[in-house]
What we know:
CATH superfamily of chain A: Aldolase class I
CATH class of chain A: Alpha Beta
Distance between the termini of chain A: 46 Å
Radius of gyration of chain B: 19 Å
Oligomer: heterodimer
Number of strands of chain A: 9
Shape of chain A: globular
Number of helices of chain A: 12
Number of strands of chain B: 14
Number of domains of chain A: 1
Strand content of chain A: 5-15%
Order of helices and strands of chain B: EEHHEHEHEHEHHEHEHEHEHEEHEHHEH
Largest sheet of chain B: 6 strands, mixed
Helix content of chain A: 40-55%
Strand content of chain B: 15-25%
Largest sheet of chain A: 9 strands, parallel
Strand order of the largest sheet of chain B: 3-4-14-9-10-13
Radius of gyration of chain A: 17 Å
CATH topology of chain A: TIM Barrel
Distance between the termini of chain B: 54 Å
Amino acid sequence: MAQxxxxxxxxxxxxxxxxxxxxxxxxxxxxxxxxxxxxxxxxFEEKKVAAIELGIPFSDPLADGVVIQKASKISLENGTNIxxxxxxxxxxxADDFSTPIxxxxxxxxxxxxxxxxxxxxxxxxxxxxxxxxxxxLEESEEVSKTCRENNIDLIMLVSPxxxxxxxxxxxxxSAGFIYLVSSTGVxxxxxxxxxxxxxxxxxxxxxxxxxVAVGFGISKAEHIRELKELNADxxxxxxxxxxxxxxxxxxKILLIDKMSEYLDSLY
Amino acid sequence: xxxFFEKNKPYNLPDSKGHFEKYGGKYVPETLMGALxxxxxxxxxxxxDEKFLDDxxxxxxxxxxxxxxxxxxxxxxxxxxxxxxxLKREDLNHTGAHKINNALGQVLLALKMGKKRIIAETGAGQxxxxxxxxxxxxxxxxxxYMGEEDTKRQAVNVERMKLLGAKVNPVYSxxxxxxxxxxEAIRDWVTxxxxxxxxxxxxxxxxxxxxxxxxxxxxxxxxxxxQIQEKENRLPDYVLACIGGGxxxxxxxxxFLGDKDVKIIGIEAAGQxxxxxxxxxxMMKGRPGVLHGSLSYVLQDKxxxxxxxxxxxxxxxxxxxxxxxxxxxxxxxxKYYPITDDQTVKAFKLLSKLEGIVPALESSHALAYLEELxxxxxxDEIVVLCLSGRGDKDLQSVFNYCQEQE
Lengths: 267, 406
């Protein structure tokens, strides 16, 4: 059987990015409201980020620190749900939004929607990838299969505590990129990364050619430089962006200016 | 044999990946996977080491007072005028509840893994006290996560944990109860996994916790089985226990699951009623979902957001349940029934007056079910109920509840 080589839109976008490492911002959908989410998505597209991680807020975000926990809670209290997020993605598709979108979600909302329905719906709305932080390799078989059938990248995580054998398996199972967690712990700004980061990056790259993106605790230009030196392909920034939203959420025009300044300051 | 852990298996579950058919599993961030495998290896080695098991059981004897008595509650039996009621007195354990059984087992595993720091979540404070106790016993650093609401409901237990040298971290997120304390403990573990062991207090969480906690608690059912045979020369007709996450019940039920003539009943907390918005009846009102690392019945809304549970009992105030209970519900082997706050408080008072035993509010749920069960029993039938803990910690809650009702 002839194998059809599907090119990952996310991988392609990271490889073609003029920024090294390529930038992947994270925001929580509907935080503080969908108008802000849409304005930020437009800004990210203008800034030519490599991809966008769009968080689906969850009531019990185990892998998240206080900043994203709080944003998720407020978003949920303001009525955010999966239907509304899919509605927004439909509008983006109609507007020819071109930056690859990755949905970041815990597993229960996916299971509740039905994993097949969820992935098929996301694919129909031009979503390029999915990250499910509480779905490790061992539990991911079904979702992984559905993702492949729908040409969506299931992006898997590697941690400083993952051993060689796991790193190899995850590197081979992940699509789009490999999400390398910078250090043990939950999301949130940190001063330093695991001393093993460079080593783990090299190990991953010995197993696969797909890009490696580093996330958790990245907030400033110094971190970006450090990741460039370590030869990381992309940097994911979440909590630092959410903090900026917290700070300027009452003045949306100012928020976009400040976010623009912040993104420029990183390189 | 000198120990009382149940090694006979009624079925080969969980499977090697920790699944009870579709339930269970390991739904956790990658950072924890290495620690779960390490724990699984140490646990599997330990339970196949008869010396380890004998040492653990003798620690339970010397330190915690095992075996706990199987007590014939004569006046309670007379009150209903039907079958005989036996109480498995887990309330007589050191620290006042069954939680110490699991804490002792897990702390020995932590020592084997060389972990110097212990963390735990707690609802009613009983598991927190048990964990703080075993940490003190072995000189380990200990931090307990407890919902802020529960620190108020169970203030005495907070003071006990502090006295035992533990740091108590109140958790202010969500409903400020057990669910949120568990989430926060997992976040701590993700951060400090390299030097920390997380002693989960119930048969919940990712594999191997549900299996491991069941094993350490299986002393309850194993002892009961021997005791009832000594006293009555036969097995009971009914076995009852309350269910939050489900550790005292799994420990009690496990030895009887293979006896098809023994009817097994789990009692969950209905709070203000299963049709109210204030309930913790995850079996009756929930549907399968993933919470805190395993797939099980969970109270959730139509979008898969976890709902806040409610019960007068801080130990049952949890929107999920252990995965093995979900399996046993679906298989029909165990029947599950909800009991309200109101029924619970009545049973709390009744046992205190009739037997001079003040039961924990958790165990009072199981006692309250006797109102429904006993009229359907005959004089020659035998009911065994797991009295999982004592109720000294609950006096204030009951007092407040009764004042509100007036």
